[in-house]
Write a structure and sequence with these properties.
three-stranded parallel sheet, five-stranded mixed sheet
Length: 247
């Protein structure tokens, strides 16, 4: 308990947050480097999810800082401090009751991708198992899912660009690591056509990317922010922001 209180006090001192007499302060938005959803550019937070958050703020007539930290620190703040809203978080059954949630910021699937022009059709995991090699990241949810299904025909690379290049150059058959927005971001920045890689009919996992919130935040506050996100969908603003990053 002492360590938790010390962590909160030190953070408040460093960040300039001043607690009121009742112990309440403004919401603190935290995220990590994970393009295209959230990343830093010229010292400012940007990205798809960041743009959505700022549009929600505008809808509510509020303004809050968005701070980028290493992922482990952002999670530590979410787990140990009040009034934290952290994004972009995978909403999993294991996390469901640990936080309060606003979302989804994006709901998508991570598919197996193949090179454009590859005439092979992949419709189920039997087809996936038939290829020589699948490129994935070293660790994370995708690898865990594939291993749980007994897949062994995969190779791993640390860097996202190296994973993509391996498929484009024909060194491996398939790629499994990205949502649509994520793959579009890297292909664009690599100077490749947006359809250089195309999805198969097989997904690794469906994902819901949300805002994870400290459980002390009142339900009424969560409901207001959820309503602001819902309004973006109804107004068409969400679709406009989404397609800006999909191009």
């Amino acid at each position: 308990m002492v360590l938790r209180l010390t962590f909160i006090a030190v953070f408040c001192l460093i960040s300039g947050q001043v607690l009121a007499a009742d112990g309440k302060h403004d919401l603190i938005f935290v995220t990590e480097e994970w393009p295209p959803y959230n990343y830093s550019q010229d010292g400012e937070a940007t990205g798809f999810s960041t743009d959505i958050i700022r549009a929600m703020m505008a809808n509510l007539g509020e303004e809050h800082d968005i701070r980028i930290y290493p992922g482990t620190r952002a999670t530590g703040m979410l787990d140990n401090m009040p009034n934290i809203m952290a994004f972009t978080y995978f909403r999993t059954p294991q996390r469901e009751t640990k936080y309060k949630w606003i979302g989804p910021l994006d709901r998508d699937a991570i598919y197996f991708y193949k090179r454009k022009g590859d005439s092979r059709r992949f419709v189920d995991m039997k087809d996936i198992r038939s290829v020589n090699s699948i490129m994935i990241a070293y660790g994370g949810m995708v690898r865990s899912r594939l291993e749980a299904q007994g897949l062994k025909n995969y190779v791993a690379a640390l860097k996202n660009r190296d994973q993509i290049r391996s498929v484009l150059r024909g060194k491996v058959d398939l790629l499994a690591n990205f949502t649509r927005l994520g793959l579009a971001y890297y292909l664009r920045n690599m100077g490749e056509a947006s359809d250089a890689l195309v999805p198969t009919e097989v997904s690794v996992v469906d994902v819901s990317l949300d805002i994870a919130c400290s459980k002390d935040i009142p339900d009424a506050v969560i409901a207001r922010w959820q309503a602001a996100l819902d309004h973006l969908h109804k107004s068409g603003e969400y679709a406009r922001i989404y397609h800006k990053y999909l191009r």
